């Protein structure tokens, strides 16, 4: 069996690395300096005016390490979603072409199988390994061997079903990321609450600054993680819907363009 280069694995590794570099650079250059500056200004305003109402800043909400990790995982998931979505879109466009290249409504017999196989196998690049060409090849080869239309239809349907199961299993990495992001947020919650409890003695003495800051870490990390998870799950379901449509449309294509025209 010919070994293929693991393009998708390499893409996932490099996309994670790029997401980490990009997000960490933004945090180091912009987010944390702006958050520190804003908190210093707020502290100065509160010291100058005891009645001053402290404002909130987006940079303060996302400044902690848990939020940074959540954004890294989000970009990584979007990169994988884009890769799989582009692959499904390209395969969907292939359904608009006549791969059999035979006159319309012309019955297809076993003697036509070799020509069809040669035309489909000659598709450029990786197209020959896509769902529709593989299902067509399987169906026409089964028909050529058995002279049975039902057997050819069943073979094509089995290929489509197995491809749908494969696409579903390959979404596990994205689902893992969607699960990991809220978990990272909860880690920030536990860390923030633990820090707040560690500074409880200061709150008893009247200094609640450390406690409020730690509770801010707890709530902000969970808030950011849950928002990212909601957005990510929407795109995951959109990709899953696109892949399911691809499988169903491929089955319909084979039924209309091949199975109905087969003759024994």
Explain what you see.
The protein has 264 residues and is mainly α. It has one domain. The chain has helices at 7-48, 58-61, 65-94, 113-121, 131-146, 149-170, 172-198, 200-205, 209-257. The two termini are 33 Å apart. 27% of the residues are buried.
Please describe the structure with a list of short key phrases separated by commas or semicolons.
mainly alpha, 264 residues, 78% helix, 9 helices, rod-shaped
Portion of residues in beta strands equals under 5%
Q: Give the biggest sheet.
A: none
What's the helix-strand series? HHHHHHHHH
User: Can you give the mean pLDDT?
Assistant: 86
DSSP summary: helix tally: 9
Q: Ends: how far apart? A: 33 Å
Stretches where pLDDT is under 50 for at least 5 consecutive residues are: none
Please state the overall shape, judged from the principal axes of the Cα atoms. Answer: rod-shaped
Judged by helices, strands and strand pairing, the structural class is mainly alpha
- Please indicate the count of domains: 1
DSSP summary, beta strand count: 0
- Radius of gyration computed on alpha carbons: 28 Å
The helicity comes to: over 70%
């Amino acid at each position: 069996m010919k070994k293929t280069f693991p393009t998708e694995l390499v893409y996932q590794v490099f996309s994670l690395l790029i997401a980490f570099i990009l997000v960490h650079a933004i945090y180091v250059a912009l987010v944390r300096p702006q958050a520190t500056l804003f908190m210093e200004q707020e502290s100065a305003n509160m010291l100058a005016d005891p009645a001053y109402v402290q404002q909130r800043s987006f940079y303060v909400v996302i400044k902690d390490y848990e939020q940074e990790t959540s954004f890294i995982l989000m970009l990584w998931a979007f990169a994988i979603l884009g890769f799989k979505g582009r692959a499904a879109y390209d395969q969907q466009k292939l359904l608009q072409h006549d791969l059999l290249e035979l006159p319309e409504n012309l019955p297809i017999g076993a003697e036509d199988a070799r020509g069809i196989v040669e035309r489909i196998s000659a598709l450029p690049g990786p197209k020959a390994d896509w769902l529709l060409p593989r299902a067509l090849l399987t169906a026409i080869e089964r028909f050529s061997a058995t002279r049975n239309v039902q057997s050819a239809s069943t073979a094509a349907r089995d290929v489509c079903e197995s491809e749908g199961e494969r696409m579903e299993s390959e979404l596990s990495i994205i689902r893992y990321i969607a699960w990991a992001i809220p978990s990272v947020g909860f880690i920030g919650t536990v860390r923030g609450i633990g820090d707040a409890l560690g500074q409880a003695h200061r709150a008893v003495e009247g200094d609640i600054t450390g406690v409020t800051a730690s509770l801010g870490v707890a709530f902000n990390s969970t808030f950011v993680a849950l928002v990212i998870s909601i957005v990510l799950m929407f795109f995951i379901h959109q990709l899953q819907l696109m892949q399911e449509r691809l499988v169903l449309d491929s089955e319909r294509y084979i039924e209309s363009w091949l199975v109905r025209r087969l003759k024994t």
